[in-house]
Design brief:
By secondary structure, this protein is of the alpha/beta class. The chain has helices spanning about 35-50, 70-80, 95, 100-110, 130-160, 195-205, 210-220, 235-240, 265-280, 325-330, 330-335, 340-355, 360-405, 410-440, 440-455, 455-460, 465-475, 495-510, and strands spanning about 1-5, 20-25, 55-65, 85-90, 115, 120-125, 175-180, 185-190, 250, 255, 295-300, 305-310, 315-320, 340, 475-485, 485-490. Helix content is about 50%, strand content about 15%. A six-stranded mixed β-sheet has the order 1-3-2-4-5-6, sandwiched between helices. A three-stranded mixed β-sheet has the order 11-15-16. It has a three-stranded antiparallel β-sheet with strand order 12-13-14. A hairpin with a 4-residue loop joins strand 5 and strand 6. Helix 5 (about 130-160) packs across helix 13 (about 360-405), helix 6 runs antiparallel to helix 7 (about 210-220) and helix 13 runs antiparallel to helix 14 (about 410-440). Residues about 30-35, about 280-285 and about 515-525 have low confidence and may be disordered.
């Protein structure tokens, strides 16, 4: 949403720096005092007036924690790309402006000057590396906060599963429907459900391979409902393994009895599992050696696992197993490539070294997190005070109404109804108070622990044994692939954001020959 807040600006006046205002609130926050859009805009307008900025545009987004696409933010970026004369963005604080590190990089590429009045931060390309690093850490923690908000959605899904309803998008053969009472559930798809039943019946005979029944199902119309694309063999395999078609389903490690109509009998599903198990693809033999990187890396060419092998009783080499169907005719095409363990170890150490920063920077980060958290704590305390006062007021109402009941001014039925209503409201207040009380210093402790582990990852890795090396890499890395001795690694969240943060914060200083670790400490609040 966009407003033109520049109606009173006179272009004949001396040149004034122009700025855009951005306010964001989640659907759960919009009614809370201090988070509302009007409160944010009032703060930003007062700040612009105080600093002498002319407000060119105002942009607003109201979203849920995980909603993709922000019309206001996207419109603001498009406007800034088209109007190079506007290089200032005003937002209340870090977690109002950014949802991920890419947003920060976007503003950095545009050469924007960012003002966050509630945090007392002004950031531009000319800012010192220490300022950029600490601002990046705030962005990382803001992203972490947004991820935590999604836990409420996951709790709702868990409750829905406990009631016997599939919590998310319907699998093939079912479709999502809304019952007359407003409940969203799954029901058999009139077109695809019969085909799913046929899949199980065909495969249970043991006469067909997965590829054959996939071809037959496609010929009878088995496609993805939304896209119309053909269903691949891998999806058919997943369908045959999915217990949901029996009326039961597994969710987050727990099995539930579903309320939806089954498509196949349990006995038929179990026969299919027996056929699948008997045809399981040949697996690599378990090695008697405890190789550090076995099971962590896959081949970028065929997707098979990279495993270790001992040579001459002292040298460890890694190679592709070559078990994929594409390698069956010529397994040596992947297996002939070998790489020494020391080479992979050095490459992993270099990846972890991207997270490295010293004690001084960690202390800056600690102070940054404390300052960032102070405002949140004040809001929690203010909310607790309001809720406690409301709880007391409701208790006084119940007491006063009880006197009225004794005096005969109200009847017992009215008292029972209203007292139950107000006690329920009291219980809601108490639950919210407990929620705010639990939101203590864990934000800071978790943030510092995360940073401390990240900065020590490389030295920890270098001095650990094979088992601990594997545990550390499993914790911080994902999707490691190998091609001709070179690994390609993806860092898990939030370590990927920390690595990007460090790179962005030091990029300008590295190009100019300045050592970022020796920059002057600046906190800006």
């Amino acid at each position: 949403m966009m407003n033109n807040g520049n109606a009173g600006w006179d272009p004949r006046q001396p040149p004034v720096r122009q700025a855009v205002l951005y306010a964001r609130v989640s659907s759960k926050e919009q009614d809370r005092e201090g988070y509302s859009i009007p409160a944010q805009l009032k703060l930003l307008q007062d700040y612009a007036l105080k600093e002498g900025f002319a407000v060119a545009r105002e942009y607003v987004d109201i979203e849920t924690a995980k909603t993709t696409g922000r019309a206001g933010f996207s419109g603001m970026v498009a406007y800034l790309r088209q109007h190079s004369c506007v290089r200032v963005v005003l937002a209340e604080k870090t977690d109002r402006l950014y949802r991920n590190l890419r947003d920060w990089v976007t503003f950095d590429e545009l050469g924007m000057e960012i003002h966050l009045p509630k945090e007392g931060v002004v950031l531009s390309r000319d800012s010192r590396s220490a300022e950029k690093l600490m601002h990046g850490i705030r962005v990382v923690m803001a992203k972490n906060y947004i991820d935590n908000l999604s836990e409420e959605a996951r709790k709702g899904q868990l409750e829905k599963a406990a009631q016997g309803h599939w919590p998310t998008r319907a699998p093939i053969g079912y479709r999502n429907v809304t019952r007359p009472d407003g409940r969203k559930v799954i029901a058999p798809d009139p077109e695809l459900a019969p085909l799913v039943t046929k899949l199980f019946n065909w495969y249970a005979t043991g006469h067909y391979a997965l590829g054959e029944i996939t071809t037959r199902a496609r010929a009878e119309g088995l496609v993805y409902r939304k896209s119309g694309n053909r269903v691949p063999v891998s999806t058919v395999h997943s369908v045959l393994r999915n217990r949901i078609y029996t009326g039961e389903f597994d969710w987050k490690g727990t099995r539930y009895q579903g309320q939806h109509a089954p498509l196949v009998p349990v006995e038929l599903w179990e026969r299919v599992q027996a056929v699948l198990d008997s045809r399981s693809s040949r697996k690599p033999k378990r090695s008697k050696h405890n190789f550090a990187f076995s099971g962590l890396i896959s081949c970028s060419r065929c997707g098979c696992a990279i495993v270790g092998e001992m040579k001459k009783q002292k040298y460890i080499y890694y190679h592709c197993t070559g078990y994929a169907e594409k390698c069956t005719g010529n397994p040596a095409s992947c297996r002939r490539k070998h790489v020494r363990e020391e080479v992979l170890e050095d490459q992993f150490a270099q990846v972890l070294g991207r997270l490295r920063f010293d004690d001084e920077v960690l202390e800056w980060a600690r102070l940054a997190l404390q300052a960032s958290h102070a405002e949140e704590q004040q809001e929690h305390q203010a909310a607790i005070s309001r809720l406690d006062a409301e709880c007391t007021r409701l208790g006084e109402r119940i007491d006063a109404m009880y006197i009225d009941k004794l005096d005969g001014r109200i009847d017992g039925a009215f008292f029972d109804r209203k007292s139950a209503e107000w006690r329920a409201a009291q219980n809601r207040c108490l639950r919210e108070i407990a929620h705010h009380q639990q939101a203590g210093p864990s934000y800071i402790h978790e943030g510092v622990a995360l940073l401390d582990l990240a900065r020590n990852a490389q030295p920890l890795f270098e001095r650990q044994g094979a088992r601990e090396k594997r545990r550390l890499l499993n914790f911080g890395l994902s999707n490691c692939t190998w091609d001709d001795g070179v690994i390609d690694v993806v860092l898990r969240q939030p370590y990927d954001l920390l690595a990007e943060t460090t790179a962005v914060a030091t990029r300008s200083d590295t190009e100019s020959g300045v050592n970022p670790n020796k920059s002057e400490i600046w906190l800006g609040w």
